[in-house]
Write a structure and sequence with these properties.
By secondary structure, this protein is α/β, with parallel strands linked by helices. It has eleven helices and ten strands. The protein has helices spanning 28-38, 43-50, 54-66, 79-82, 86-91, 98-107, 143-147, 150-159, 173-176, 205-222, 227-230, and strands at 2-5, 77-78, 108-112, 116-118, 123-124, 166-169, 187-197, 200-202, 239-240, 249-254. Helix 2 (43-50) packs across helix 3.
C-alpha cells in the first residue's frame, strides 16, 4: 500500500533533522532539466508565471541559481522534514522515530512539481514549483506534460511488489492530476474529510489538508496495510461514515474541530 500526498509551499530548513538517514531523489535528471529552464527566467517572469510577490520571486530565482545536481547535507534536507504546510502539521514528521521513518520511506510518496516523486527521506533542495505551473519545456506546455507517464510508471513499479496493490490518494487534485490514471495499474482509494457546518457536511480546505497528514501519521504508527484498517482512523474527532462512502472513496466526517 502506497500513500500519496502533496508537497507544501512553506519549507523548514532551519530545524536540524532528527535523523541522518537519507536517500537521493529519484528523478534528478528531470529535475535538472527543469532547473535549466527556470534559470532562464527573470524574477519578473517568475513573479508573473507563479503569481508571486517580487520578494518571493527573487527568493526563488536565487534558489534556482543555487540548485546543484549534487545533493549534500549542506544544501539539502529530507523531504518529509523540509516541507512545513498544513498536511505536514498533521503528519508531524519531526516527531517520528527511525523505525517509523523507515516504514514511511517504504509506503509514502510525495508528489512534486520539480522532483516528480519524493520518498520521505529523499534529500531535497529548497524550491517553489507547483505542479499546476504552466512552465513550457521541450516536453510540452506545462508540468503535467513534462512528467507525463514518469510518475505512473514509478508508482506501478513500487506497487508491483504487493500481491493486491493499492494506492491511497491523499494528494490534492492539482497534484493527483499528474498521475496518468490510464497507465496506472494499482487500485486507487481516495480519502475525503468533511466537517459539519451550517447544517451540512462539507470539505473545509485547511482542515482537509491537516486530516490528510493525520491519516498518514495514523498509517505510519499502525503500519496500515489494508483499506479495511483505514476505516478505523479516528484522529481529532473524525469517524468513517459507511453510508456516504464507496469502496474506493472513503469519507470521514466530524461534527466539530477537535
Amino acid at each position: 500500500m502506497l500513500f500519496l500526498i502533496s508537497p507544501a509551499k512553506s519549507l523548514d530548513y532551519d530545524t536540524p533533522p532528527q535523523t541522518a538517514a537519507h536517500t537521493q531523489p529519484l528523478f534528478k535528471r528531470q529535475s535538472a532539466a527543469l532547473i535549466d529552464v527556470l534559470k532562464t527566467q527573470t524574477a519578473s517572469q517568475i513573479s508573473s508565471l507563479m503569481k508571486l510577490s517580487d520578494a518571493l520571486a527573487g527568493l526563488n530565482v536565487g534558489r534556482y541559481q543555487a540548485w546543484s545536481p549534487k545533493f549534500t547535507a549542506k544544501n539539502s534536507k529530507q523531504a518529509v522534514l523540509a516541507f512545513n504546510g498544513d498536511v505536514y502539521g498533521g503528519l508531524q514528521a519531526k516527531t517520528l522515530g527511525e523505525k517509523q521513518l523507515a516504514w514511511a520511506q517504504q509506503h509514502v510518496c510525495i508528489l512534486s512539481g520539480l522532483y516528480g516523486v519524493l520518498r520521505p527521506l529523499d534529500w531535497m533542495q529548497p524550491y517553489r514549483l507547483e505542479m499546476g505551473t504552466a512552465l513550457p519545456t521541450p516536453q510540452g506546455k506545462n508540468l503535467y506534460q513534462f512528467w507525463a507517464s514518469h510518475i505512473a510508471s514509478y508508482l506501478n513499479e513500487r506497487a508491483a511488489a504487493d500481491t493486491s496493490p493499492v494506492i491511497v490518494n491523499l494528494a490534492s487534485e492539482e497534484y493527483f492530476k499528474a498521475v496518468d490514471l490510464k497507465a496506472l495499474k494499482p487500485r486507487v482509494v481516495s480519502c475525503v474529510f468533511e466537517e459539519f457546518k451550517n447544517g451540512t457536511y462539507k470539505i473545509i480546505s485547511f482542515n482537509a489538508k491537516r486530516a490528510r497528514g493525520l491519516m498518514v501519521r495514523y498509517a505510519i504508527e499502525n503500519k496500515i496495510g489494508s483499506v479495511k484498517k483505514l476505516q478505523s482512523f479516528d484522529a481529532e474527532g473524525y469517524r468513517f461514515d459507511p453510508a456516504v462512502s464507496a469502496p474506493d472513496r472513503l469519507v470521514f466526517r466530524r461534527k466539530q474541530s477537535a
